[in-house]
Structures are given as structure tokens and as C-alpha cells.
């Protein structure tokens, strides 16, 4: 799978946002995104979350000073940021220059970044990740559980408020395409096997840092398996119910992997007892509507936050948005397409 698989929504679709045309008042959900929310121990001032985004700018696996600036620019008092996917162990990856959190050097570099985010009074979670999408042997799986545990410990030592375990996009959940044939002859996926690795990791991480600091990211309609939609719904509900047993803080859904599919997260929202974050192609209007309707508690924004460091403020003012430059998502200098997207204030100063 290539990097482009993150691109979940067609370019034209987000172009619509740039005009910010629709009026939330008329739609009856005036800026629900801007209302406070108590997420476990964290009092959030608004519901606009920075989604985790790989930017391939961590030379040698170590986050650089530019990364500090990137997150600092996107921090607002009481805002929640989830940092980019961060390796729990050295591993081959299709992505170059992704950060890790397994060495002292990496942890030290993250410490400075976390401090910069906290200085702006934002809440910061690390998305901890193993980059292999495959079925692991028994011993590999045991080792991975330990690596996640240690990564979570390192993240907390570096000052992060918590970790988000990356189980979306075909990571951790659902590699084992095992099916069993019931008495009626109908095949069903063996949910226990599909989630086993992920749940062992959750258990260890919760044991290490406490459930109130743990989130789980999951794309129920992932394209990395050959499950049917009905299987994916069953699997997602099973996973949500199992996550409840560990009393984790939140579940972060990535709704859309294929726009042609029915991508309702309602069954998982109903099954999961903690905070629900959702993401995938949300506009300001869409986010307000989703919060107002109770579909989710928080909305994570990827591309719009990438190109608008002051996204919460722009939403508040219903101001026009900077367009993102797809060409610099994963490459470019440490400035271009990374830390040089202007804020509204900077734009005013330039004009
Ligand atoms: C450049 C880029 C990098 C991404 N990297 C990650 C990642 O590291 N981990 C992850 O879980 N999702 C990743 N995603 C998915 C985003 O978190 C988000 O769910 C997705 O972009 C949909 O939200 P959006 O429509 O608001 O952009 C990435 C997306 C983009 C655009």
C-alpha cells in the first residue's frame, strides 16, 4: 500500500470547504464544535482535534526542531492534538523519516515538543505504531506487546498526556482472515483472532499507563481486508465491546476508506462507552452537524489542520481556509508545506 492510501476523499470534495458557504445557524447546529468537552481527566475547550499525520520529516527517526514548530503552531488552549504515527521499534517501513519513541534520543526530542505544546495549554497524545501489516507469529506478537508497553511508558515519560494505539489502516486489527463455517454453513470471521493482537496490546498499555490515558484508532471499513461490510460491522462492534472492558479513554474512528461503501459508525458509537472521535472528510459544517447530532464527541481534522495552523480560530470566525498542498504532504523541505502555512494574522500582516 502506498502513501496515497491516506488520501481518503477526493480533492474536489474538500474544495467545497474553502467557500464555507453553508450557514450553521440555519441548519440548527450553531458551532457545536466550539463547545467544551470533558474527556476523562482532560477538559477540552473545543471539539476540533488535530488528526495524526505522517509527514516524513524526522531525519533518522528522530523528530527535529521543525516538528516542534509544526505542533506548536497548531496548539490552542484546551485543544487536543494527536501526533503522527510513531514507531514503537525499529522497523522497515514504506515511509521514510518517520519518528520513533523507542530510543533515548527520540524520547528526549519528543520531550521538547511536548513542552512546547503544553506551554500553549493544549493536550497532546502520541500515536504509537508498528508499521507491519501482517499476521505475526506467537513470539513476534509477544515481543510486540512489550514494545508497545515500553513505547507507552516512554511517551508518558516524555510528557505526553496519553497514547493512541494505531489500529487503523490495516495495522493490528484484522490480518487473520480466518473464517469458520457454522452449523448453518455460513462463514463468519473469527473476531477473536482478528482482534487478539490489538487487545493484548491494549491490555498491556492500560496496565502500564492507565486506561484514562489510552485511545485506540480504528478504521472499521478498512480496505486492507477482504471482509464484507457485514463482517466489518460485526468486527467493529466486537472490538468496541472488548475495548470497553479495558475502560480506555477514547476510540478514534476513521470513517471512510472507500466512499462507495456505507460508512456509518453508528453501531460502534452505540457499542463503545468512552469518548468517540471521528474523522474522514469533515468540513466545518459537517463537524458541527456530527457533534450536534451526537454522532461523535470530537472531530479530528487532517488535511485542513495541516494547512491551517489556526483551524479552531478560522472555524470560529467562519474565515476562509488555506488550501493544502498535496505535493508536500510527505516530502519537501522542513519548511515548505510544513511550517509555512500562514495564520489569519500572518495573512493580514502580509496584505
Ligand atoms: C499527510 C497525511 C498523513 C497521515 N498520516 C496518518 C498517520 O500517521 N496515522 C493515522 O492514523 N492516520 C494518518 N492519516 C489520516 C488522517 O489522520 C485523517 O484520518 C485523514 O486525513 C482523514 O481526515 P481529513 O479528511 O480531515 O484529512 C494521514 C493523512 C494525511 C493527509
Automatic annotation (TrEMBL):
InterPro entries: Aldolase_TIM (IPR013785), OxRdtase_FMN_N (IPR001155), Oye-like (IPR045247). It holds the Pfam family Oxidored_FMN. This is 12-oxo-phytodienoate reductase. SUPFAM superfamilies: FMN-linked oxidoreductases. It comes from the Eukaryota. GO terms for molecular function: FMN binding; oxidoreductase activity. Residues 134-320 form the NADH:flavin oxidoreductase/NADH oxidase N-terminal domain. Keywords: Flavoprotein, FMN. Coiled coil: none annotated. Belongs to the NADH:flavin oxidoreductase/NADH oxidase family. It comes from Pohlia nutans.
